[in-house]
Amino acid sequence: MRRDLVQLPPVPEWPDGIVVRGFDAKRDAAAVHALLERAYANGGGSVADFDVWLPLMTGDSEYDPELWFVADGGGVAGVALNWTSAFVKDLAVDKAWRGRGLGTALLRHTMHAFAARGAVALDLKVEADNPSGAVRLYEREGFRLVERLRP
User: Which of 24, 55, 100, 128 is buried most deeply by CB count within 10 Å?
Assistant: First the structure.
């Protein structure tokens, strides 16, 4: 899916108790990985074992910790892990924080960050049958289907 960044969405509105910050591998890696495992437990994506995941992600040429946004609510409440090519790699919200607008805020924060870097569009992949409501979120935020991959 793709969203043009010429016209930006409103600025993010963070739920009470949330502070958004960049990723710090020493402080955040285990909690971010655990969130991704929980988020993908019922489908919608997958995550490698921690010992494989961390060096794979942080060693990628498109990794920039400034583009990995952690929503902290006294612990990792949600994340938007983005590649420098203006691609959302992972967007996940802890079950306890769902339904409060955190996913929308993370996505809007990501759009604003890439627009500030001069990106003209933001891309992502999502499974069509994602059980988390991700497709609806992306469509609400102006993302449109670009390509459908066959399984």
Answer: 100
DSSP state of 125: -
Torsion of CA 27, 73, 81, 93, to 10 degrees: 130
| Separation CA 46–CA 49 (nearest Å) | 10
Report which secondary-structure segment, H or E, holds 51: helix 50-58
Rounded CA separation 99/103 (Å): 9
Each residue's pLDDT tens digit, 70-86: 999 999 999 999 999 99
pLDDT at residue 137, rounded to an integer = 92
**pLDDT 10s digits, 102-124:** 999 999 999 999 999 999 999 99
Question: What domains, with CATH codes, occur in the chain?
Answer: 2-11+19-140 (3.40.630.30)
